[in-house]
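Re: [ENG-882] Designed sequences occasionally contain unexpected residues at chain ends

Forwarding the minimal case from QA. Structure tokens:
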């Protein structure tokens, strides 16, 4: 491990800088006239006070929020502001009709008296009062977290905010988990996006939350969604709000580990045309030496020969990324709408890995070498979509939508491997070598959707879809000739792989909505045709298959709560990163490859959810899921022939193995403990049972996994200052052959608003108590035991600025239905460095 020199005591200097900076910020605010509005909210039918009602003070002309708070136990509230009037009050509470009333007067103390709210049997609908929106909303098949209703969204990344969303968690390597599982699908605005094709955490860690409107966690995906994503679907909805005019926002950050980054987002509308966009650039890593160093130590004990393989080294990684997206809308008339979208992401990474590898048997060194691996990875994701939506004169609620989408996600990888200080690792048998791999996918998707009322209480959805997908990989390995020192292609490690997967589907679903009950049920029929093409072996055709997928969900609504019950079957088709037969030999002792023979995994999920919004919000979710042909990542010992020299290596791939059962409990709550203090708690615990036969041996593993996240925010009155503390614990994963270690996360965030909240400046301290994070994982098989320890940067500090200007009021129109290819399983994110930018 790297020796860390003793750091000088910087705390007095840091405290001095903090005090000086925020003293200047505080004195920068000039005096203003104070207005205090007071009143009491009463239930009109029961004549009792209502607590925890969201009360928002708005400018009566612009309808922009000035101040918001919650009513106390006696129904009373008090709002104090220095802003200029005229004002109006907006009141929002689940189970009651929303209300907006004018405020008479513009100075001094103003009393509005008693305000009566009428109970409503309907679920809370969206309102135009941004500051008064509740954070969460429970629907019959999903939970929605309103990112823009959370004040921390001005300074946090999307990945930060995901820690607060019910049923979601983020582990030590920034991998996103849904109910503790990585088997899900991420959509952008209801559509699969090339941005999320490989490592969605990379995108969401670099993207500020100001770009996002809300996040939906779809626990029981209805029939209109593709049948894949075992644990469910995460739908990220970007902002599109604007009236006639424009709105522009800019977010910048400077992080001590990740370096600088900038994001621009905006909306524009003129007449029938509307546009929303976001985009950003930044550094992937930018610590000491311009790289992100990761120390690695791995020990493997092979039982039969009493052999120990030890590796220690350091990996340096740096690079740049860029991303962007745009939504376009043109209203031909009141019945016809055309929309289009484009999303793009690119990342270029440089890798330098220095490692010492040694093998000994019975305490005698048998083999050793120094190894240096330098390389590059170039990732691109692009998708283009166009939709035409047609309404009907007799019923504007009936919509027919035609959609087309093209997406591509190429990835190029190059590694140069050189050895030195060899002991029993001869160049003639184990030469220096280079690896090349160009992989990715290209999709064409056509879809037709119909939605509308069947009767006053029944709504119907139906549609058809065709996905033509081509996954490909062109790879080769070049060995250095010992005589000429020239690189010569190794034909045994060279191939072109093309995997065609064509999916044809039909779906039909019905939703019945009554006074207290809502039910939704549907069926989806999918036919999948597969063919695989290897240049070296000719064309091979895999069996085609079809699936009939049911989904059922029921909701019982009460005045301030609801109970939901759902069941669905889901398919998990393997993605290109699991199918790709490219053999990654970047670490010659531990090689990995995909498996083109993988079959889809079928999962059954039962879900029971209780939600209560009487005082803050509480969500409790109990779920059980099982699969009988689970796709697992497994390792074994392989004796391979390298240039007529036998060598034992650890070989990792994917297999359809046995059963995977998960029983999970998730609890989330948002509480207001005063008009300026809010608390969010998000926790889950799962028990996992895994079993399967691999390499002639039966494996079983089970255990508890879980996570907990807490967030506290205190706003210092009308000063514009706010302080947030976020902390979390992740227990690690249970795998078929081992498990990973736990992880603790903490963050301090201090913000200050300027210019009527148009400018927000924040200082963040991430994991300040420990400079490095140590991550460990274990694998135990019948043949060997392996422990891997990874050390990477943990502590970072950041300066963030968020500036917004323009006119913001209503929404850009968008089609109600579109393409959402949520049907493939992506690559495991692997050991991504944890960090918050």
């Amino acid at each position: 491990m790297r020796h860390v020199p003793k750091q000088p005591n910087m705390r007095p200097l840091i405290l001095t800088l903090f005090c000086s900076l925020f003293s200047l910020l505080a004195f920068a605010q000039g005096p203003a006239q104070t207005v205090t509005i007071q009143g009491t909210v009463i239930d009109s039918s029961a004549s009792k006070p209502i607590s925890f009602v969201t009360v928002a003070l708005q400018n009566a002309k612009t309808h922009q929020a000035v101040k918001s708070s919650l009513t106390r136990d006696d129904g009373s509230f008090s709002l104090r502001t220095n802003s200029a009037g005229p004002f109006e009050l907006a009141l929002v509470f689940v189970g009651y009709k929303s209300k907006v009333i004018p405020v008479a007067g513009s100075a001094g103390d103003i009393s509005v008296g008693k305000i009566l709210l009428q109970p409503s049997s309907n679920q809370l609908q969206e309102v135009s009062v941004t500051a008064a929106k509740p954070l969460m909303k429970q629907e019959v098949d999903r939970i929605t977290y309103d990112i823009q209703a959370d004040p921390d969204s001005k300074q946090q990344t999307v990945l930060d905010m995901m820690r607060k969303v019910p049923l979601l968690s983020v582990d030590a390597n920034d991998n996103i988990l849904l109910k503790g599982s990585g088997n899900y699908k991420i959509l952008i605005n209801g559509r699969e996006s090339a941005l999320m094709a490989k490592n969605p955490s990379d995108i969401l860690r670099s993207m500020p939350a100001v770009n996002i409107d809300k996040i939906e966690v779809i626990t029981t995906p209805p029939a209109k969604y593709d049948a894949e994503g075992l644990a469910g679907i995460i739908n990220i909805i970007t902002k599109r709000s604007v009236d006639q005019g424009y709105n522009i926002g800019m977010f910048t950050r400077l992080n001590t580990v990740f370096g600088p980054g900038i994001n621009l987002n905006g909306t524009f509308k003129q007449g029938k045309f509307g546009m929303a966009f976001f985009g950003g650039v930044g550094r992937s890593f930018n610590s000491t030496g311009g790289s992100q160093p990761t120390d690695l130590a791995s020990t493997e004990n092979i039982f039969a020969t009493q052999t120990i393989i030890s590796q220690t080294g350091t990996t340096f990684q740096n690079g740049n990324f860029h991303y962007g997206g745009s939504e376009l809308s043109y209203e031909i008339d009141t019945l016809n709408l055309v929309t289009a979208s484009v999303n793009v992401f690119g990342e270029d990474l440089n890798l330098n890995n220095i490692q010492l590898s040694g093998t000994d048997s019975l305490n005698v060194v048998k083999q050793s070498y120094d190894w240096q691996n330098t390389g590059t990875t170039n990732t691109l994701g692009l998708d283009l979509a166009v939709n035409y939506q047609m309404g009907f004169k007799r019923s504007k609620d009936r919509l027919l939508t035609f959609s087309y989408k093209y997406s591509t996600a190429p990835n190029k990888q190059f590694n140069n491997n050189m050895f030195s200080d060899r002991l029993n690792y001869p160049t003639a048998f184990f030469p220096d070598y280079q690896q090349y791999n160009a992989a990715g996918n290209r999709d064409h998707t056509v879809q037709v959707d119909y939605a509308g009322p069947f009767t006053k209480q029944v709504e119907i959805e139906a549609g058809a879809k065709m996905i033509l997908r081509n996954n490909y990989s062109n790879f080769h390995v070049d060995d250095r000739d010992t005589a000429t020192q020239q690189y010569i292609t190794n034909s045994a490690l060279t191939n072109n792989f093309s995997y065609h997967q064509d999916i044809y589907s039909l779906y039909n679903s019905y939703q019945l909505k009554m006074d207290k009950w809502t039910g939704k049920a549907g069926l989806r029929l999918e036919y999948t045709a597969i063919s695989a093409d290897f240049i070296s072996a000719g064309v091979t055709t895999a069996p085609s298959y079809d699936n009939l997928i049911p989904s059922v969900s029921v909701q019982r609504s009460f005045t301030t709560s609801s109970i939901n019950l759902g069941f669905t079957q889901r398919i998990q088709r393997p993605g290109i990163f699991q199918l790709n037969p490219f053999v990654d030999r970047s670490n010659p002792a531990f090689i990995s490859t995909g498996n083109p023979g993988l079959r889809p995994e079928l999962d059954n999920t039962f879900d029971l959810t209780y939600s209560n919004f009487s005082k803050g919000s509480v969500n409790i979710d109990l779920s059980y899921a099982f699969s009988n042909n689970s796709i697992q990542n497994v390792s074994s010992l392989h004796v391979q022939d390298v240039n007529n020299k036998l060598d034992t290596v650890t070989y990792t791939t994917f297999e359809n193995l046995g059963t995977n059962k998960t029983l999970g409990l998730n609890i989330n709550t948002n509480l207001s403990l005063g008009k300026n203090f809010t608390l969010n708690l998000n926790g889950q615990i799962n028990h996992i049972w895994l079993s399967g036969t691999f390499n002639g041996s039966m494996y079983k593993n089970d255990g508890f996994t879980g996570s907990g996240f807490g967030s506290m925010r205190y706003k210092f009155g009308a000063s514009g200052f706010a302080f947030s503390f976020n902390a979390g614990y992740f227990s690690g994963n249970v795998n078929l052959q081992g498990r990973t270690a736990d992880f603790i996360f903490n963050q301090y965030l201090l913000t200050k608003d300027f210019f009527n909240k148009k400018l927000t400046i924040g200082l963040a301290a991430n994991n300040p108590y420990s400079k490095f994070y140590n991550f460990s994982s274990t694998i135990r098989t019948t043949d060997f035991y392996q422990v891997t320890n990874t050390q990477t940067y943990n502590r970072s500090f950041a300066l963030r600025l968020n500036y917004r200007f323009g006119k913001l009021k209503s929404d850009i129109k968008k089609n109600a239905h579109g393409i959402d290819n949520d049907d493939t399983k992506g690559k495991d994110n692997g050991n991504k460095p944890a960090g918050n930018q």
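QA comment: On inspection the terminal residues look reasonable. The helical segments are 11-27, 158-162, 200-206, 576-579. Proposing we downgrade this to a documentation issue.
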